[in-house]
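ok so for the tutorial part 2 we go from a plain amino acid sequence to predicted structure tokens. step 1 is just haveing the sequence, like this:
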Amino acid sequence: MNKETILVVDDEEDILELVRYNLSRDGYTVKCAASGEDAHRIIGSEKIDLLVLDLMLPGMDGLELTRRLKSAPQTRDLPIVMLSAKGEEADIVTGLELGADDYITKPFSPRVVIARVRSVLRRRIQPPAEKDDVLQIHELVIHPGRRSVTADGMPLDLTFTEFQVLAFLARRPGWVFTRTQIVDAVRGDDYPVTDRSVDVQIVGLRKKMGSAGHYIETVRGVGYRFKEKAPSKRVH
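step 2 — the prediction. this is what the tokens look like for a chain of 236 residues:
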């Protein structure tokens, strides 16, 4: 039996009960809330391992709740699986940029929700050991544990997804990755994000990286790579 506690937030009672019932059958402890305010209160007072969050809520909506959780040190690492009837690419990108771990569009299969929840929890509980290592390349210092990046000593304000993309590319300088490989590495298999969404993340990254943005190279017709360090020149 699973021991994780999941908070499901939705103002539609039938959907709330559907998700609660299926997650409970799968062995999770499930708590419910019908508003962003109630969810925020529960998260502040109880141990929650994952949040299944509807976006269209009365009062504080799901996006605002996500912003608050990701901006607070105590809750920034809380995994979030978003549920929404808004399935356009722009909506999905917005959710991911705010720090959601997954995005499921309505109508949905309960089996899909369970599979995604399992996947998110598995990735959070068992991160690859290499992700804990501080990475320094060019003038960039990437600290996965702190989820921080500095360029020439100046901190960069990256979203959750931008950080994931940068760290993934920088760990393998010189390697070319397709957009699909980037999505799979950052979000897991079968993630519903299009090639265009990866391009959006890269554009945002380059802009925030300033002069260091040119280290992310576009390989036309293939994908992206992080530029390798140039060999040191010998001084005679």
